[in-house]
Write a structure and sequence with these properties.
Helix content is 68%, strand content 0%. By secondary structure, it is mainly alpha-helical. The protein is flat and about 55 Å long.
Length: 101
């Protein structure tokens, strides 16, 4: 599974979900949903670490992490961000051999 293919699949699923639930995915919708999903991931983390009420569930933690990634991919598509290029520029450069100045 590559990032571009994953993003395309997530966008298709988001379109289906939005049509089915009559959601207007306006300009800031994806960013607000990303924040919501990050809050849900945080809540699961707190449950698993014994710092919140509820039953700890490692699978739910993974599911919430998937929601965060999905919403990030949707946000990047809407904002015109090439996430693969940004990752290469910001992160992958650290794996390249460093040249002496």
């Amino acid at each position: 599974m590559d990032l571009t293919g994953l993003q395309a699949d997530v966008l298709r699923i988001s379109e289906i979900y939005a049509a089915e639930h009559r959601i207007d995915r306006d300009r800031d919708w994806a960013l607000l949903k990303l924040q919501e999903e990050l809050g849900e991931l945080t809540a699961e983390h707190l449950r698993l670490s014994g710092r919140a009420r509820g039953t700890p569930d490692a699978q739910a933690l993974g599911d919430e992490a998937a929601d965060v990634l999905g919403m990030l991919l949707i946000y990047c598509a809407g904002a015109g961000i090439d996430l693969e290029a940004a990752m290469r520029r910001k992160w992958m450069k650290w794996l390249e051999p460093q040249t002496e100045a």
